Amino acid sequence: MQSIASVTAKVIVLTGASSGIGEATARHLARQGHYLYIGARRLDRLTALQDELRAEGGHVEAVQLDVTRPEDLQAIVSQAHAAHGRIDVLVNNAGVMPLSPLAALKIDEWNRTLDVNVRGVLHGIAAVLPIMQAQGQGHIVNIASVGAHQVWPSSAVYCASKFAVRAISDGLRQETDAIRVTLVSPGVVESELADHITDETTRAAMRDFRRIALPPQAVAQAIAYAIAQPDDVDVSELIVRPTASPY
């Protein structure tokens, strides 16, 4: 099938691409003609998505990765850089949300949340930053949450991780005058995140909290909007909520 790539195509590395916002973003950006390197732990889903988008003419490479392993981020970035000689955009999207009250003492889940949501973002930045600095341009998009701006019961650790992503993003933005940094903070989005909540009380409460939700495509469009701006225009922060949601 004829390629759908355009002359404005960018080389984009995207984590957490096997479902939810990541999958929707991969579809949207591939259909815009960008060169995509998509990563996640579930290689079967990634490969199916890669094959589907390639059949449409998209340029997509699926790479299995775990963002808690810095070497995995280095590997996907190195693959993209070797093929194209540049990295234009990193979308740090991978995340987990195992909510619970602090009194439940789910320490393993706390640690997993910090490992994926905070260290995973830092590992991505570490992989692309030297390349982008050498290029004199680049764009890092970090996916946070409305939980980066407000805290609710049972979400203390999750919100702490997203507050950290917000702080990292603004700190990086201030440290460079050549690399764009965008923080995207979605409200409630249709996704699998809530399915991984093991605390039964919190799981039940989240059913009502998540009753009004955005389709992930809405967040994908926000990410694409930020990416599409000229190199001298930095969309520093976007909050994307369902119109009918109070959260």
TrEMBL record:
It comes from the Bacteria. The keyword NAD does not apply. The keyword Oxidoreductase applies. InterPro entries: KR_dom (IPR057326), NAD(P)-bd_dom_sf (IPR036291), Sc_DH/Rdtase_CS (IPR020904), SDR_fam (IPR002347). Residues 10-192 form the Ketoreductase domain. Signal peptide: none annotated. Pfam families: adh_short (PF00106). GO terms for molecular function: oxidoreductase activity, acting on the CH-OH group of donors, NAD or NADP as acceptor. Keywords: Oxidoreductase. Belongs to the short-chain dehydrogenases/reductases (SDR) family. This is SDR family oxidoreductase.
